[in-house]
Write a structure and sequence with these properties.
Strand content: 15-25%
Order of helices and strands: EEH
Shape: rod-shaped
Helix content: 40-55%
Strand order of the largest sheet: 1-2
Number of helices: 1
């Protein structure tokens, strides 16, 4: 069985919980969405810092 490289969640017999395969291995939807949210927040913080030096 394949598992998510980040949270080690079982991706199911038909990989129904797999979002994609990354360089580190398969990732589930929940971890992918969490990483996307972190990246979005980091980008917003960077833009705010650029606008208000």
């Amino acid at each position: 069985m394949l598992t998510c490289w980040k949270c080690h969640r079982d991706l199911g017999p038909m990989l129904e919980y797999q979002k994609m395969v990354t360089e580190k291995g398969p990732i589930c939807y929940a971890c992918f969405n969490a990483l996307q949210e972190e990246a979005h927040q980091a980008e917003q913080a960077r833009r705010a810092a650029d606008e208000n030096p």
